């Protein structure tokens, strides 16, 4: 496994197109997957068929290995960080438990759940050593001296309270997105983290994957000129979420804009490298009076950039008949060309970065960094790499800063304010 810890700062690493490998070369040399492959194949022919086959094998291999990764042995000179998970949340296995298996310095040591049985069943299923069950279990887990880092995948409306409690106990926190219900709460959490000298990270996992870096580096290379407009979408078909999902609960910080929308806003801000100056328009499709099932918003950004975000938790079938497909795409139009990214959010399964300029298009892939990762590393695995490096005092390959997290919540709130739906309720938790 290619792992170079401690010395990497890859904020700009994948810019050099000299690293690119033509896919045909990759096939002939039998390498598994290039850092960045440029697909220059012409019409459908034997070669393209072989490429397609490799692409399918690559897909199967990445999906299989990422869900059942090789287990890493602890390093002789570094104590693994023991994580505790608050809640037997659906996202916990993908976001932390499975990625930790292949990380030599991370162990998910404990889980807490409001029901003892649920906690025990979850721990058994995922091989977690320590179990806390019952109504006081979250605090008990936080207070456990063995636990160094807390993973907080609670409903959005509980992020603030339990992150504050974990930080107050001197624990590092990997906090699910969106950071909280408000920018003010987000600011307070980061201030406490600073005061306590611990790490706090909002889990915008896609930002740690090579795809986000590659897109950003193409934009920064000047090849396409200045960004003119962006469109970032995350839309899931109806049936993906149950009616009683936390995302449809206003009291718990629900709404499409909070959930999928927080990424679309993050990606808009990341790809443009700018902050919106105004919200031009907002359209919600409501699930209930205060819950947006779908939101479309447009923004004005410095440099005459116009951006659109679209998030939908439950896109209805076309003509009431044809199931809608997930849309996880970003489209960035520039002065001299454009980039279309298919699946910027979960790129490990499959993605494409299509760059068009001067009437020509190329397709790039970015499953690994030149010096970091494996094709099967999910965005969560890359994120864990960065989190562990930060806790260990090393330079992570990517990071979401305090300012970034606060700004993202401000933009979310500005959209809800513009539409009149209003920010999600403030937590009534008052820190000691
Ligand atoms: N990074 C990513 O890709 C993803 C991030 N997320 C984020 O993770 C968080 C959790 O999402 P998800 O795992 O889908 O949610 P789940 O509903 O599966 O999990 C939420 C957990 O919160 C606990 N909980 C505590 N109080 C309540 C309450 N009043 N009502 C409901 N649950 C409560 C429950 O734990 P207990 O077991 O103690 O009952 C439950 O397991 C959200 O913030 C979401 O935005 C979600 C999906 C993907
Ligand atoms: O990545 C995600 O996919 C599904 C969403 O509902 C979830 O909250 C989000 O983080």
TrEMBL record:
Domain of life according to the entry: Eukaryota
MF-aspect GO terms: D-xylose 1-dehydrogenase (NADP+) activity; nucleotide binding
Domain annotation Gfo/Idh/MocA-like oxidoreductase N-terminal: ranges: 81-202
UniProt catalytic activity: D-xylose + NADP(+) = D-xylono-1,5-lactone + NADPH + H(+)
Principal EC category: oxidoreductase
EC number: 1.1.1.179
Gene3D superfamilies xrefs: Dihydrodipicolinate Reductase, domain 2, NAD(P)-binding Rossmann-like Domain
Any single Pfam family the record assigns to this protein: GFO_IDH_MocA
SUPFAM superfamilies referenced in this protein's UniProt entry, alphabetically: Glyceraldehyde-3-phosphate dehydrogenase-like, C-terminal domain, NAD(P)-binding Rossmann-fold domains
Domain annotation GFO/IDH/MocA-like oxidoreductase: ranges: 214-339
Keywords noted in UniProt: Oxidoreductase
Family statement: Belongs to the Gfo/Idh/MocA family.
Record's protein name: D-xylose 1-dehydrogenase (NADP(+), D-xylono-1,5-lactone-forming)
Native source species: Mycena sanguinolenta
């Amino acid at each position: 496994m290619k792992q170079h810890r401690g010395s990497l700062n890859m904020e700009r690493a994948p810019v050099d197109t000299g690293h690119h490998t033509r896919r045909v070369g990759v096939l002939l040399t039998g390498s598994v997957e290039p850092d960045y492959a440029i697909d220059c194949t012409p019409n459908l022919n034997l070669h393209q068929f072989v490429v397609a086959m490799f692409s399918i094998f690559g897909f199967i291999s990445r999906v299989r290995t990422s869900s059942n990764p090789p287990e890493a042995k602890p390093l002789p000179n570094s104590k693994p960080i023991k994580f505790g998970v608050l809640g037997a949340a659906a996202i916990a296995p993908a976001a932390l438990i499975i990625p930790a298996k292949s990380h030599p310095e991370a162990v998910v040591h404990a889980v807490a759940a409001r029901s003892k049985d649920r906690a025990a069943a979850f721990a058994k299923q995922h091989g977690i050593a320590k179990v806390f069950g019952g109504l006081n279990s979250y605090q008990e887990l936080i207070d456990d001296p063995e636990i160094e880092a807390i993973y907080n995948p609670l409903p959005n409306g509980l992020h603030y309270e339990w992150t504050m409690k974990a930080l107050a106990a001197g624990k590092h926190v990997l906090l699910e997105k969106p950071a909280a219900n408000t920018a003010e709460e987000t600011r307070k959490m980061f201030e406490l983290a600073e005061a306590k000298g611990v790490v706090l990270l909002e889990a915008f996992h896609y930002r740690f994957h090579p795809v986000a870096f590659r897109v950003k580096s193409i934009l920064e290379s000047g090849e396409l000129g200045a960004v003119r407009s962006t469109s970032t979408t995350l839309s899931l078909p109806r049936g993906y979420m149950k009616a009683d999902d936390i995302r449809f609960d206003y009291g718990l910080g629900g709404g499409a804009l909070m959930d999928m929308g927080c990424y679309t806003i993050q990606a808009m801000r990341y790809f443009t490298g700018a902050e919106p100056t105004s919200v031009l328009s907002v359209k919600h499709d409501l699930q209930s009076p205060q819950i947006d099932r779908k939101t479309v918003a447009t923004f004005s950004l410095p440099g005459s950039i116009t951006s659109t975000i679209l998030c939908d938790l439950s896109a209805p079938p076309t003509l009431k008949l044809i199931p809608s497909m997930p849309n996880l795409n970003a489209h960035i139009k520039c002065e001299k060309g454009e980039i279309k990214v298919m699946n910027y959010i979960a790129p490990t399964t499959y993605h494409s970065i299509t760059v068009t300029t001067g009437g020509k298009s190329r397709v790039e892939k970015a499953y690994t960094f030149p010096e970091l990762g494996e094709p099967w590393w999910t965005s969560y695995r890359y994120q864990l790499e960065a989190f562990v490096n930060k806790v260990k005092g090393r330079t992570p390959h990517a990071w979401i800063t305090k300012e970034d997290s606060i700004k993202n919540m401000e933009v979310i709130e500005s959209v809800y304010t513009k539409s009149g739906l209003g920010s999600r309720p403030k937590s009534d938790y008052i820190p000691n």
